[in-house]
Structure prediction request, 201 residues.
Amino acid sequence: MKQSAVEPGTTVLGVEITKRHYHTLYSLAAAVGIDRPRLSRLLKKLGEIPANATEVDCGRMVFEAATAVPMVEAFKTAVPLRDVPEYLGASKRQVEILYREGIVLPLVPRSGPGSVRHVVFGRKHLDELLARIACLPEVDRSSDRDFHPISYACQRGAGRFERLFTEVLQGKIPAFRSPDRTGVGGIVVDVGALVGAKNTA
Prediction:
């Protein structure tokens, strides 16, 4: 039975509530282990509570458990922008480009409240990106092809980093991964073939 912010184990109209469907601010704070004032500020930052809501207003609000708990948990384990380059095995410049182009998305949308300061990224989102890179076939170093990282390909005139990276993920450009590096820095492409294809296009 779906009840608003009713504790599991409570009987309502003869039916026992076995699963919580909604949380108050108080019960959500207990469920995610964040004190109520801090959780209130976080939910305002996430746009779940109006910025001008009073403490009384916040106390009256209810939040859907299925979305609120995972959202707050994701924020608790989020990766700050400064740590994303190391997490993704990318340069700071590459991460700035991926962020600007909307390829790596922050937990709080850039147009939303609190999006300018304390930019953070969900580990699940970053891990999904790393998993896609990890699925690339391992490079065959015995081949005589001109394999180099994407950054080198950009320097040699193969195209802009964001375009090459996107087309690698879409499977439009043949790409491989280096066994001695992980993440973005481990992607290698045939630079000669890419530059040649661009010059003949």
